[in-house]
Amino acid sequence: MKINLNADLGESFGAWTMGDDEALLQVVGAANIACGFHAGDPLVMRRTIRTAVAAGVGPGAHPAYPDLQGFGRRPMQMAPAELEAAIIYQVGALAGIAAAEGTRLVHVKPHGALSNQSCEDDALADVVARAVRAVDRDLILLAPALSALERAGRRAGLRVACEAYADRAYTDAGMLVPRREPGAVLHGADTVVAHVRRMLEAGGLVSRSGKVLPTPMHSLCVHGDTPGAVEHARHLRAALEADGWRMVRLDEALKD
Questions:
Q1: Per-residue pLDDT tens for 94-145?
Q2: CATH number of domain containing 233
Q3: Which sign does the torsion angle of CA 230, 107, 219, 237 carry?
Q4: Once rounded to an integer, what is the mean pLDDT over residues 142-168?
Q5: How many other CB atoms are there within 10 angstroms of residue 1's CB atom?
Q6: Which tens digit of pLDDT belongs to each residue from 194-210?
Q7: Which of 72, 102, 139, 242 is in the most buried spot, having the most CB atoms within 10 Å?
Q8: How far apart are CA 42 and CA 47, in angstroms?
Q9: What is the spatial distance between Cα 20 and Cα 221, in angstroms, rounded to a whole number?
């Protein structure tokens, strides 16, 4: 009965601030840190790595399409070689900062549209997995459960952690309901906890129609940019611990 909680962090940029990273780092066990393409900058990246290490949280890279204005949520089409290089560039940059802070990256989790598209496109997913492997084959690929990205990670010989979203609704195909649709993002701490409990009890993703899609779940994502994110994360952790779940780092969640 062990589970990891992860959150997307380090998404401030220059004078602009997003989320309460310090508070979330007291709750989660894995930090997906923006690498400058959709959010973040070198100083924010270094501060977030430093804060994560101090909190005992495993740092990971959160690479994206080069879409700062759109927060990485706009689909793009890039040549495979260009995209692979862009991912290597981002992960490599954060890995260098981690080394400067005396630590190593634990995982990589694609962001936004890059994640959404690679979850449904096998060829694109292979590019992502290949880029991660090129930087460091010991990195864990944090991939949405039952996605093309999960399958690509396994084909590439990477360790893959299967992720479920605590605050997002699922379609019957196991994909996230698009944000533009009503009910795509779950609001209210009790609603989030109920959603997660349904999935853990069912042993798989549960769509908004009630369909169960069996899958292992190593990590639960709590978004740091949604209203009440810290409250949701704290409430979820407390509820799961009360149910007997032990909160662990991502590498620990993969161990038998």
A1: 999 999 999 999 999 999 999 999 999 999 999 999 999 999 999 999 999 9
A2: 3.20.20.370
A3: negative
A4: 97
A5: 9
A6: 999 999 999 999 999 99
A7: 72
A8: 9
A9: 15
CA distance 89 to 220: 27
Give the total number of structural domains in the chain.
Answer: 1
Instruction: Concatenate the DSSP letters of all residues of 152-187 into one string.
Output: HHHHTT-EEEEEEETTB-B-TTSPBPPTTSTTSB--
pLDDT, residue 86, reads 98
**pLDDT (0 to 100) of residue 51:** 97
Residues pairing with 5 in the sheet = 220
Mean pLDDT over 75-92 rounds to 98
Closest to 4 (Cα-Cα) out of 94, 97, 100, 109: 109
Q: Which residues contact 146 (CB under 8 A, 6 or more apart)?
A: 162, 174, 205, 213, 215
Cβ proximity of 51 and 45 under 8 Å: no
CB-based contacts of 94, cutoff 8 Å, min separation 6: 33, 35, 45, 49, 59, 61, 105
* Cβ neighbours, 10 Å, residue 172: 12
* Contact status, residue 176 vs residue 116, Cβ threshold 8 Å: yes
Q: Read off the pTM.
A: 0.95
Place of tokens 């069912």: 202
Domain span at residue 161 reads 2-253
- For CA atoms 123, 124, 129, 132, the dihedral sign is positive
Paired with 143 in beta bridges are 162
**Closest-CA residue to 54 (of 71, 75, 79, 31):** 31
Q: Closest Cα to residue 13, out of 51, 52, 79, 67?
A: 67
